[in-house]
Amino acid sequence: MKILLVEDEEAIRGFVRINLKRSDMEPMEASSGEQALQLVAQHGPPDIALLDIMLPGISGLEVCSALREAYPTMGIIMLTAKSQEQDKIQGLELGADDYVQKPFSPGELMARIRSLARRMRLPDPADPDAATASSVETNGELEPNVGAVAASPVETNNEREYSAGALQEPAGPNNGRFIPLPELCSAKAAGSHESALLPGDEALQVADQHPQSAAVQTSSDSSTSADDYKSEPVPPHDIRYYGAFSLSDSERRFWKNDGEILLTPTEWSLVKLLLDRYGQSVSRDEILTEVWGRYYAGDLKVVDVNIRRIRQKVEADPSEPVIIETVWGFGYRWYRGAAR
């Protein structure tokens, strides 16, 4: 599991680095926000980012916003001081999945990372069976698409290769979307946009010059045309429908009226919990336990902040929610009659 650690204090960075390595995690270190974004541009995105809020240059909040915009499914944990209450809430609103308050113990930090990794369905480095299963999956990765704007990463022996100047999410459920960071990437796409003939047209073009081979080429290319140009993506086999909304557990995808809504790992877990309890009220305590873990000791506002973010994505008017209802003094409910 690759972890991006962004912390300007060397003592804290060294302390966290040691504990990450002890847990068989692979740290990528940066002492500033600019250096962090450059690392991601050069080496590809991590699985989870640990971001200190107070950094020289651009703040951890700005780094959080940039990473979340580029990688909707990346895990992000903010490292905050006790006095940074407003910054903590702002970080959650910008897309952070969780936060750890300084000073923190190694056990608490590792527990938060593992809790987020479970929500993201990442293999636990401490679990040899999970690591083996992960390596088996990556051995069957597809080769990069040469004509694409950015090639998909090829994972071999837990190493990733990325095309220069591009950012790409690791292949897997809900990933594989090329999203450039405007601050770091060139807007110029790789490759040309020359028009190409379909196989049938190409065969007709050479028919006059090579009448005998044209028939053979047309026949052989017909199967290619059917597979490459007319095939439709196979929809997930486990889509569940809830009025205007639907989701797939296997691909961790969520739609409204057939339009996909990109969710962070925490937002996905929260939406799935509410839809699993469709039409029923779910308490804040249960949400905290199911999404953040049984021993979560952070601020209860984390639930409300994430609900507010989800409402901005699913409600026609987030200020007047009709889909995710507030059950005052208790929790939240996904309205069973929500068909908008």
Written account of the structure:
The protein is 39% helix and 17% strand. It is of the alpha/beta class and 340 residues long. The protein has three domains: 132 residues, Rossmann fold (3-Layer(aba) Sandwich), CATH 3.40.50.2300; 29 residues, no CATH class; 96 residues, Arc Repressor Mutant, subunit A. The strands form four sheets. The protein has a five-stranded parallel beta sheet with strand order 2-1-3-4-5, with helices on both faces. Strand 4, helix 4 and strand 5 form a beta-alpha-beta unit. Helix 9 packs across helix 11. The protein is globular and about 55 Å long.
Considering the chains and any ligands shown, give keywords for the structure:
340 residues; alpha/beta; Rossmann fold; Arc Repressor Mutant, subunit A; 3 domains; five-stranded parallel sheet; four-stranded antiparallel sheet; 14 strands; 39% helix
SS strand fraction: 15-25%
Shape: globular
Number of strands: 14
Question: How far apart lie the N and C ends?
Answer: 39 Å
Quaternary status:
single chain
Q: What is the CATH architecture annotation of the largest domain?
A: 3-Layer(aba) Sandwich
Rg calculated over all Cα atoms = 23 Å
According to CATH, the homologous superfamily of the largest domain is: Response regulator
Counting helices, strands and paired strands, the structural category is: alpha/beta
Main sheet properties: 5 strands, parallel
